[in-house]
Design brief:
Order of helices and strands of chain A: HHHHHHHHHHH
Shape of chain B: flat
CATH topology of chain B: MetI-like fold
Distance between the termini of chain B: 5 Å
CATH superfamily of chain A: MetI-like
CATH class of chain B: Mainly Alpha
Number of helices of chain A: 11
Oligomer: heterodimer
Order of helices and strands of chain B: HHHHHHHHHHHHH
Structural class of chain B: mainly alpha
CATH architecture of chain A: Orthogonal Bundle
CATH class of chain A: Mainly Alpha
Distance between the termini of chain A: 23 Å
CATH superfamily of chain B: MetI-like
Helix content of chain A: over 70%
Helix content of chain B: over 70%
Structural class of chain A: mainly alpha
Largest sheet of chain B: none
């Protein structure tokens, strides 16, 4: 009940509506995201024609393309966040639970990685190994697990000293059992919180790659690609820039609001 | 102090080694070479070119040669720009990046610090609410969204400022890139300063300062602001990473011939040496920004002794 109250309702509602629209609109709409339509080029928004946001320079329905972009962005965001979650949690739990020299080395590695120019490395990765969606989210996920690793490690260390863990050990549980039964369940809250904060930052990274022309392969599109396309023809059709830019901003804003609210609720230490 | 700086520089060496090694082997593991794009080349010519760039040697040998060059401060010849060394390209591009990046950070400080102070001193006032909204907007509006929108409004629609081009660094050409790059940092800085100033103002020594009967301005400027600036200084490291990423997007949007532009072009054209050189330089800049942050932090914080 109180969790429900602490959530930003507007942001949550808009976010759910966006996700729903991204799933449903391309399916309901008679227009495809890829097929050019030569006699419908550059139409303005019109209710009757069914092009609610108009069409682009190839006669493709903007709304459908936006929603496809949203799909791709969300897909990459969720998959990349899960990748980073798996790496980060394994790394953090190992460091925090074992402690000692292994902990020191693992965290030293994290420190080194923190000062790498990551975005440039992802750019290089995507250029070199092609614009595969799978690769895209593995690459993004592989570079965004550092925060999660740090937080999970800190949390695990403090858990390890708690009485119930000591009691479990005295009672004869093995490390693996303790990890599964006691440590991971207690980390769940904080992991979910940082997952919701990782998603918007991954959306931004993916959009950045798309903006540079490294996103999903045409005719498939993502929000960053749409923004770059719109930016290149803003003189003639500012609508093509404003719509995806606004959509990306709203999407990320809502995710951030939600993540902030969850963090304030579950992680009092963040203040 | 000097020992601390020397020690930190030494500690940065592993980081740089990781960057160099990672960049080198990533680029060499890539399918396709830098000269694949050209039309079918006569094998002899190809052999000559590859020999010239030492591409015919084994990879470990190339690696050693490359590291040796870097130690001497030589990033090698560019693959794409014939007869131009990466050093020359960096020398052309870096001033543009530094100009825009430093001006953007300066602007962000000039706008963000007063906003954050106003928000902390007058809680729930207009400034406070503006600060909250702006901070979240800044987090949600990346540079590649604000830059095209600013161009659309101020260049295309209003014709007040040029839509791009470096123009030898004329101020009119600088305004939009610098503003676009600084906006997220106005938000971050205002938010950070608001939070830390609110915390500092609760501290016992501030109450003591009030109790001594010091005037409000003195309490704020002499006692509260200095410790409240610490998180801002610590933010310098992450900010430098962000400015680098942002400058890539800014230079793409405005068509500026800076490092970010070279980096993206080089990546598309498989210009190995250029991409590696710029990546390593980015790493160096990040390391230096972190070092500067640590030194400033130590200088501001009486509890830290070097």
């Amino acid at each position: 009940m109180s969790l429900w109250r602490s959530l930003p309702r507007w942001s949550l509602g808009i976010l759910l509506m966006l996700v729903l629209a991204a799933l449903v609109v391309p399916w309901l709409s008679p227009y495809s995201y890829y097929a050019p339509s030569w006699d419908e080029i550059d139409l303005g928004p019109h209710w009757r024609s069914g092009h609610l946001l108009g069409t682009d320079d190839l006669g493709r329905d903007l709304l459908v393309r936006l929603m496809w972009g949203c799909r791709i962005s969300l897909l990459v965001a969720v998959c990349a966040s899960l990748t980073s979650l798996v790496i980060g949690v394994l790394w953090g739990v190992t460091a925090g639970f074992i402690g000692g020299r292994i902990d020191a080395w693992l965290m030293r590695a994290v420190d080194v990685l923190y000062s790498l120019p990551f975005i440039p490395l992802v750019v290089v990765l995507t250029v070199l190994f092609g614009r595969d969606l799978l690769l895209l989210f593995i690459a993004i996920g592989a570079v965004s697990w550092l925060d999660i690793a740090r937080i999970v490690r800190g949390q695990t260390r403090s858990l390890r000293e708690r009485d119930f863990i000591v009691a479990a050990r005295v009672g004869g549980m093995t490390d693996a059992q303790i990890m599964r039964r006691h440590v991971l369940p207690n980390l769940a809250g904080i992991i979910i919180v940082y997952l919701t904060l990782t998603i918007p930052s991954v959306i931004l990274t993916e959009a950045f790659l798309g903006y540079l022309g490294l996103g999903a392969q045409a005719p498939l599109t993502s929000l960053g690609t749409l923004i770059a396309d719109g930016a290149s023809q803003m003189r003639a059709r500012p609508r093509l820039l404003i719509c995806p830019a606004l959509l990306l901003a709203v999407l990320v804003y809502c995710c951030n609001r939600l993540g902030d609210a969850l963090r304030d609720r579950f992680d009092p230490a963040s203040h | 102090m000097l020992r601390f700086i020397a020690w930190r520089l030494l500690a940065a060496l592993p980081t740089l080694a990781v960057i160099i090694t990672l960049a080198f082997f990533l680029l060499h593991a890539a399918p396709g070479g830098p000269f694949d794009a050209d039309k079918a080349m006569v094998p002899e010519i190809r052999a000559v070119i590859e020999a010239r760039y030492h591409l015919d040697e084994s990879v470990p040998l190339q690696y050693l040669r490359y590291v040796g060059g870097i130690v001497r401060g030589d990033f090698g010849p560019s693959f794409q720009y014939q007869d131009t060394s990466v050093n020359e390209l960096i020398a052309q591009g870096l001033p543009i990046d530094l100009t825009i990046g430093l001006l953007a950070l300066l602007l962000a400080l000039l706008l963000g610090v007063p906003l954050g102070m106003a928000a902390a001193l007058r809680r729930n006032s207009l400034a406070d609410r503006a600060c909250t909204v702006l901070a979240l907007l800044g987090l949600s509006l990346p540079v590649y969204v604000t830059a095209p929108l600013l161009i659309l409004v101020f260049a295309v629609t209003l014709h007040w400022l040029p839509a791009g081009d470096w123009g030898e660094g004329a101020w009119r050409n600088l305004v939009l890139p610098v503003v676009a790059l600084s906006l997220p940092y106005v938000a971050y800085i205002a938010r950070l300063l608001r939070a830390s100033l609110l915390e500092v103002l609760q501290a016992p020594y501030i109450r003591t300062a009030w109790a001594k009967g010091l005037p409000g301005s003195q309490v704020l400027w002499r006692h509260a602001l200095r410790p409240a600036m610490l998180p801002l200084v610590a933010f310098l490291g992450p900010a430098s990473v962000g400015v680098i990423t942002g400058s890539i997007a800014i230079e793409t949007s405005f068509g500026l011939p800076g490092l970010g532009r070279y980096f993206v072009d080089g990546a598309f054209n498989r210009d190995y040496t250029l991409v590696m050189g710029v990546t390593i330089l980015y790493g160096v800049l990040i390391v230096l920004a972190n070092l500067l942050a640590d030194v400033l932090q130590a200088w501001l914080d009486p509890k830290v002794r070097l």
